[in-house]
Amino acid sequence: MKLEIEIPDSSLSALRQAPKEFTACLRLMAAAKLYEVGDLSQERAAELAGQSRQEFLASLSRLRVSPFQGVEEDF
Questions:
Q1: Contact, 63 vs 27, CB < 8 A?
Q2: Fewer beta carbons within 10 angstroms: which end of the chain, N or C?
């Protein structure tokens, strides 16, 4: 599936990112958040981010997102 989003050039300039870099960043951020709130599994979130599970887990660490899903009482 292909999704188009209009992004102002000023936003890309402020972030100092090329469109391709921004796309990868946006996919990762969306995947990490959807994983964090429990809407996607690690496997599906990694797929959305365009990464292997190992790469995705490393990205979660960089983003300070716990790799563990669930309610604290479950642990």
A1: no
A2: N
Tell me if 32 sits within 8 A of 65, measured CB to CB: yes
Domain extents for the chain? 14-64
Residue with tokens 């490393």: 58
CA 59 to chain centre: 8
pLDDT per residue as tens digits for the range 1-36: 898 999 898 988 898 999 999 999 999 999 999 999
Query: pLDDT per residue over 35-46, tens digit each?
Result: 999 999 999 999
Report how far residue 58's alpha carbon sits from residue 23's, in angstroms, rounded to the nearest whole number. Answer: 19
**Contact present, 48 and 14 (Cβ < 8 Å):** no
Q: Spell out the residues 6+ positions from residue 27 whose beta carbon is closer than 8 angstroms to its own.
A: 48, 49, 50
Cβ proximity of 69 and 38 under 8 Å: yes
